[in-house]
Design brief:
309 residues, alpha+beta, six-stranded antiparallel beta sheet, four-stranded antiparallel beta sheet, 12 helices, 13 strands
């Protein structure tokens, strides 16, 4: 690995940014930066502001570890800028990043390919609420289409609460949709290159795996092994690879899936730059596969040496 470390050259670790997920990105970035530096990589943290491209150009970097979460960093904008600068970067390219950040377009692509994802309805205006309620039933979940970390999401169990859920989501995004709630168990599956990491079953006492459950709570439980039998696990892994490939994703990422009470899997979303904090799921899955945090970040960064960016 020491020879490869030298091949990396000078590495910028992009973190922070200006999205609603800024604080999580700063935590992820600090963990990635520390691991890379401990491995001997000439890595430098950059809190990405609107002058980030000037900083990257002035710094004469050789490649970028992009750990920006949310808009501006995970949605194809930063990927396009890095392409213009000619800087190799971690994770998916422009198109896959843009698609996966848009939960609604992601669902539409999966549906077009016959992959299972819960029915949904776009909530453009107040008059869309009643038809969505009629078509999807209760409970349902209301989401901003372009936010991550469950920002602006609400589970709705009573019809009279739908308007407030829509108004909350609309504070974060002008594209809001409702999705049928899947009652069952929640799984998350990370991919590292061609390797599917062990599936994790997530269990929380909260209404759903929300921001608090993801990053703050000590009551969230992560089950590895996930408890599925071999046949079900094989079906889940195949579905996740299909979902990842359908969007043109590459490098690494995480797919969230629900399993209903009949044992059917439903694709929820693809995270193209998942969290890398002490509460995050990809490091937990990697650890279960015998990959420590330092090896994980080095393997993600090593993908920038393989071309194709």
């Amino acid at each position: 690995m020491s020879r490869q470390v030298k091949q990396f050259g000078k590495v910028a670790v992009l973190m922070g940014g200006w999205s609603a997920e800024r604080e999580v990105s700063l935590r992820s970035g600090a963990a990635v930066l520390a691991a890379l530096q401990a491995a001997g990589v000439d890595a430098h943290g950059i809190d990405a502001g609107r002058d980030v491209l000037e900083k990257l150009s002035a710094g004469k970097f050789d490649r970028v570890f992009n750990i920006l979460h949310g808009r501006g960093g995970e949605d194809g904008a930063m990927q396009g800028a890095l392409e213009v600068l000619g800087l190799p970067y971690t994770g998916s390219g422009v198109l896959a990043s843009a698609l996966s950040m848009d939960k609604l377009r992601t669902k539409q692509i999966w549906q077009s390919m016959g992959l299972p994802t819960p029915p949904s309805a776009i909530l453009r205006a107040e008059e869309d609420l009643a038809p969505a309620l009629r078509d999807l039933g209760l409970p349902l979940v209301v989401k901003p289409a372009h936010e991550g970390s469950s920002v602006g999401m609400s589970k709705v169990t009573r019809a009279e609460d739908l308007h407030a859920a829509w108004a909350l989501a609309a504070r974060y995004d002008d594209c809001v949709f409702a999705e049928r709630w899947i009652t069952g168990k929640e799984y998350t599956v990370a991919l590292l290159g061609e390797q599917v990491l062990p599936a994790i079953r997530v269990e929380t006492p909260n209404a759903f795996y929300d921001y608090h459950a993801k990053y703050q709570a000590d009551t969230t439980r992560y089950h590895v092994p996930c408890g599925l039998d071999a046949a079900a696990l094989a079906r889940l892994e195949t579905l996740v690879k299909q979902a990842f490939s359908a969007l043109g994703a590459r490098g690494w990422g995480r797919v969230d899936v629900m399993c209903d009470e009949q044992g059917r899997f439903w694709l929820i979303e693809l995270n193209s730059i998942p969290g890398m904090t002490d509460h995050s799921l990809v490091p937990k899955a990697a650890k279960a596969a015998g990959i420590d945090f330092q090896e994980l970040v080095l393997r993600i960064l090593a993908q920038t040496l393989e071309g194709g960016k």
